[in-house]
Amino acid sequence: MKRYITGMDSNALSKRDNIVRAIRFDRPEYIPMTFHINEACWGHYPAEFLEELMAEHSFLFPAAKRKQARPELEQQVPERVGRPHVDPWGCKWETAMDGIVGTVTEHPLADWGAFESFIMPDPAVTDGKVGVDWGEISSSIEKAKAAGEFTVGGLIHGHTFQRMVDLRGYEDLLFDMFDGHADLQRLIEMVERFNAEIVQRYVDLGVDMMCYAEDLGMQSGPMVSPEMFKKYIGPVYERLMEPAREAGCIIHMHSDGCVRELVDELVRDGVEAVNIQDLVNGIDWIRDNLGGRVCVDLDIDRQEVTVHGSPGDIEKLIREEVTKLGSPQGGLMLIYGLYPGVPRENVRALADAMEKYAFHFSG
Questions:
Q1: Does residue 309 contact residue 346 with C-beta atoms inside 8 Å?
Q2: Can you give 142-187 as a three-state secondary structure string?
Q3: Counting Cβ atoms within 10 Å, is residue 161 exposed (0-12), middle (13-18) or buried (19+)?
């Protein structure tokens, strides 16, 4: 198995081909695993610990070296304590921890009267969160393609429903939907118009996969009723997915929280991979409702076992998820997002278990 980790086997599938096989139930050589270190972790854990973690887990971090520059800090991160910032949509954000998204404290369309003078940001220069250079993005994607890498495009996290929540406020938006407010459709059309241009730009660049990430769930149910989602949000998703689907891109959907009531709307025609959380939705429920139907890109628990359990509990959790949701045919990927508060021994146990069980079905 070490041959896959080091990449020394010339007969092994490329990482790109293995991901495609996993998503399309075409017998991948291993289960794709992603271990993401949130930027906030660099202010919580000693840098040496994180650098050693990456260097010692070459399967999860193939490009990592000891004493490397912090990869999560290479991007411009606007979330800083005591430094509110206004995004390109005019939403004012504040956070309690560097690197954590925080919350909108001023909604630019809290008063519908502001809509008449509101100007949509330009998708030619921003993704809705930070400025973007499409020339650089194009060059980066071309280089990745030339290297045989898996290329991904996507809308910013929280692209439609959450974007409207940011602009209007959560309660006001729900009342708008319930009341069928006259300006609501104009708002939906504006947000969709912005997103549609982002989608088309990535489609034109020929990415392998398009991601549509939006948190729709709470701890025990969705943030919006299935009826309102189907009426106002689902049709937008369908239109935003259409250009990517027609171009042959893999369609990847994501939502945190309990989304069991929305799954049939999320896993619509053409969606090949869905990223949802494990314990809040239930491992058995995911198996019974999504197993074999779509590739499950499973979001590993960040609330209970990984924070409060033992290293043994963590290995047991990963083993259960792999054995219940995986198969030699594929249809499973796992992702873990590390945030401050997880004991160091548990962080290592997670990385160890993910590397171990990635090869559970390998010959």
A1: yes
A2: HHHHHCCCCCEEECCCCCCHHHHHHHHCHHHHHHHHHHCCCCHHHH
A3: buried
**Is 248 within a domain?**
yes
User: What single-letter DSSP state applies at residue 13?
Assistant: P
**For residue 70, what pLDDT band results from cuts at 50, 70 and 90?**
low
Does the pLDDT value for residue 76 go beyond 80? no
Tally of domains within the chain: 1
pLDDT tens sequence across 162-182: 999 999 999 999 999 999 999
Q: Which domain holds residue 60?
A: 2-67+147-357
Q: How far is 43 from 317, CA to CA, in rounded Å?
A: 28
12-18: long-range contacts, CB 8 A cutoff, minimum separation 24: 14/148, 15/149, 15/150, 16/148, 16/149, 16/150, 16/208
Place of tokens 């025609």: 269
Q: Reading across the β-sheet that carries 92-94, which strands appear in turn?
A: 85-86, 92-94, 103-106
In a domain, 237, yes or no: yes
For residue range 100-114, list pLDDT tens digits in order: 888 999 999 999 999
- Token look-up 């790109």 returns 16
| CA proximity to 127, closest of 194, 214, 47, 60 | 194
| CATH (domain of 52) | 3.20.20.210
R_g of the chain computed on alpha carbons:
21
Q: What is the pTM of this model?
A: 0.91
CB atoms within 10 A of CB 197: 12
Q: Strand 33-37's sheet: what is its strand order?
A: 33-37, 332-338, 295-299, 271-275, 250-254, 209-213, 152-154
Q: How far apart are the first and last CA of the chain?
A: 9
User: Is residue 253 very low, low, confident or very high in pLDDT (cuts 50, 70, 90)?
Assistant: very high
What type of residue is 58?
S
Residue 98 within any structural domain of the chain: no
Nearest to 295 by CA among 304, 286, 303: 286
Residue 200 lies in a domain: yes
pLDDT tens profile 116-152:
999 999 999 999 999 999 999 999 999 999 999 999 9
